[in-house]
């Protein structure tokens, strides 16, 4: 991992009193039943005192330890990852490994992926435990722009800019795609910004005009740009400014 920037909002700051068993589950891999067993064994101390009551209230600033090791709430997390090929945007490994297998953080099971990329697509993937924040990115109503660098099999000309701006008819879809912004860098290399997330949308848009996408790389989501310091497979926490931009 490169350029680690930690930005976590402690749940403890949002709630002055948290049940001890809930605190343990939020801070460790322990389930509620295992947390209760740890309490009954006397494995938990709060400010140096053994506590066995699962309903005991943990307050802000209190030092909680499990078998002598301090534990703390994980909090809400926001990450960016530079996705390599042959990984999938799923919470579990399937044909290819999940991108979450590249992220070494506590309690990864609380994370989900905000917007997916195909296995052969590289680039910016956003990962979070904040469902409302994720919804702002993925909801079609929010029209959050996603910008892609696209390598094509055949050259394109400037006439395609107007076609994509007007919307393209995709096979099996009713109506046209929403207006898309096309920038031609080279005859076979373009940037495309879309505000939807239809299945294989970028590939299907170029297929609809008789072209074929050879390589696809996502550069940005909304105002969040992929950090150029991140090599393929690397990740970092988002900054406060990046989080607030969504």
TrEMBL record:
PROSITE patterns: PSI_RSU, S4
EC number: 5.4.99.-
CDD domains recorded: PseudoU_synth_RsuA, S4
Reactions the enzyme catalyzes: uridine(516) in 16S rRNA = pseudouridine(516) in 16S rRNA
Broad EC category: isomerase
GO cellular component terms attached to this protein's record: cytosol
MF term (GO), any: RNA binding
Ranges for domain RNA-binding S4: 18-75
Organism superkingdom: Bacteria
Record's signal peptide: none
Pfam families per record: PseudoU_synth_2 (PF00849), S4 (PF01479)
SUPFAM superfamilies, A to Z: Alpha-L RNA-binding motif, Pseudouridine synthase
GO biological-process terms attached to the record: enzyme-directed rRNA pseudouridine synthesis
Listed PANTHER family: PSEUDOURIDINE SYNTHASE, PSEUDOURIDINE SYNTHASE FAMILY PROTEIN-RELATED
Job description of the protein: Responsible for synthesis of pseudouridine from uracil-516 in 16S ribosomal RNA.
Family affiliation: Belongs to the pseudouridine synthase RsuA family.
Protein name: Pseudouridine synthase
Organism of provenance: Shewanella baltica (strain OS155 / ATCC BAA-1091)
């Amino acid at each position: 991992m490169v350029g680690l920037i930690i930005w976590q909002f402690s749940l403890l700051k949002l709630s002055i009193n948290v049940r001890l068993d809930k605190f343990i589950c939020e801070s460790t891999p322990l389930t509620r039943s295992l947390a209760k067993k740890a309490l009954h064994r006397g494995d938990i101390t709060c400010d140096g005192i053994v506590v066995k009551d699962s309903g005991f209230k943990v307050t802000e600033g209190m030092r909680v330890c499990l078998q002598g090791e301090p534990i703390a709430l994980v909090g809400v997390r926001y990450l960016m990852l530079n996705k390599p090929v042959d990984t999938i945007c799923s919470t579990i490994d399937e044909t290819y490994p999940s991108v979450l297998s590249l992220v070494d953080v506590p309690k990864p099971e609380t994370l989900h992926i905000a917007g997916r990329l195909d296995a052969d697509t590289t680039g910016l993937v956003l990962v979070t435990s904040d469902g409302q924040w994720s919804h702002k990115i993925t909801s079609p109503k929010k029209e959050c722009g996603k910008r892609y660098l696209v390598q094509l099999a055949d050259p394109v000309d400037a006439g395609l800019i107007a076609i994509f701006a007007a919307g393209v008819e995709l096979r099996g879809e009713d109506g046209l795609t929403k207006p898309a912004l096309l920038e031609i860098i080279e005859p076979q290399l373009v940037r495309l910004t879309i505000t939807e997330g239809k299945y294989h949308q970028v590939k299907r848009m170029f297929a609809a005009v008789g072209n074929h996408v050879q390589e696809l790389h996502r550069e940005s989501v909304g105002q969040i740009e992929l950090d150029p310091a991140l090599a393929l497979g690397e990740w970092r926490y988002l900054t406060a400014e990046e989080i607030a931009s969504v």
